[in-house]
Amino acid sequence: MAMSPRKRARISRGVQYVVLALVVVAVVLATDWAKVKNDFFNPEIARAMFPDVIIVALKNTIIYTACGFTFGLGLGLVLGLMRLSSVGPYRWMATVFIEFFRGVPALVVFLALSVGVPTAFPGYTVPGDVLGIATLALGMVGGAYMAETIRAGIQAVPKGQTEAARSLGMSGSRAMISIIIPQAFRIILPPLTNELILLTKDSSLVYLLGYTASTVELTSFGRQTLNQEKNMTPIIVISLCYLLITVPLSMVVRRMEARAGRAR
Amino acid sequence: MSAATRETRTGAAIDVIELHKYFGDNEVLKGIDFHVDNGQVVCVIGPSGSGKSTLLKCVNLLEQPTSGRIFVEGDEITDPDVDVDSIRSRIGMVFQQFNLFPHLTVLRNLTIAQQRVKKRGKDEAVEIARRNLAKVGLSEKESAYPAHLSGGRGMVKSGWVYS
Questions:
Q1: pTM of the full structure
Q2: Is A159 touching B (CB cutoff 8 A)?
Q3: Residue A168's closest chain B neighbor by CA?
Q4: What is the pLDDT of residues A3-13, one digit of tens each?
Q5: Which residue from A168, A186, A262 is facing B117, i.e. has the nearest CB?
Q6: Helices and strands in chain B, H and E counts
Q7: In which element (H, E) is residue B15 found?
Q8: pLDDT tens figures, B73-96
Q9: How many CB atoms lie within 10 A of CB A110?
Q10: DSSP string, B27-89
């Protein structure tokens, strides 16, 4: 006897719920919860990480990321405008820079600045210590990515906007600064947020530079505790700390987007 | 008379002499010759694609004419040495799509060129803008964004941007 399509769909959905419930029950029963709690969510180990994990490690991660992103945004804007320049050599230089730093792992850039520079040029180190290297490395890698995003954003602003600005008597650069770039940044807010989140995570590469009690960032801090305690709890704690940065960031940007959307 | 020798008519607001414009091999404007007196209203009518917009864009050099000369109130905008921006700031242009600045409020749309191009102070620019908004009955819209204006209001407003 043929079933009606609606009835068949309902049965299929019911089967899917039953399978899900069985899997959940199996996992719950098969897991040694006491061991999981001790290995992953050990309250003593977690408590011992505070307050340093916040006031030192999280703070440093935020500082490295903020400095790298700020430098990268400026660099990306310059490179993006160079890519659009009518002067050939500017375009070529920007393209080479972008292709190089987009193509090379961030880890290699950190290595080059921290180990490469002092080895190749004895007596010279990147100024600013850990923060200097982190800013430069994250900025150059992030800047290369953001340059292409910014270029695309500028090109996405309708041509009529430039014409309107020029017809009012604005110079080309004035139109770019007052009319085109502000609109471009509204368009590229989502990919720029992505880049900021990526840089937050890339700041973990600072572990390569070694650390002191005052320069330690989240990943190094977690690794240090992991080695001492032989326990996964520190990893969980620092993971939550990263989410503490990225999730509120996403929410703020979503609100900014909604506001910009209303003005469009 | 040839383009090279004919002098601009005195008192003409716009004077166009032997204007040619090519896009590649496609000749869009084939030697346009016309002038508009002060206070005169002129309609340019033609089928779409016949070059009306191109002609208007040439007058304030948003399109570079292939050849010919264009005078605006006696100043030649096609002269390579002329300050194009200062001539443009005296020409009002309402675009088909209005091209209001969507990221700025209505009031800021009206003041930005006054401040950045004509170098008026903020207070003066705002006062002029508010006066013009009042004339067209849009005073209460000054802090709205262009997206919130109806089509007709947008057009009225983009017209006043240039005053």
A1: 0.80
A2: no
A3: B89
A4: 788 889 999 99
A5: A168
A6: 5, 4
A7: strand B12-23
A8: 888 888 888 888 888 888 888 887
A9: 23
A10: EEEEEEEEEEETT--------TTSSHHHHHHHHTTSS--SEEEEEETTEETT-TTS-HHHHHT
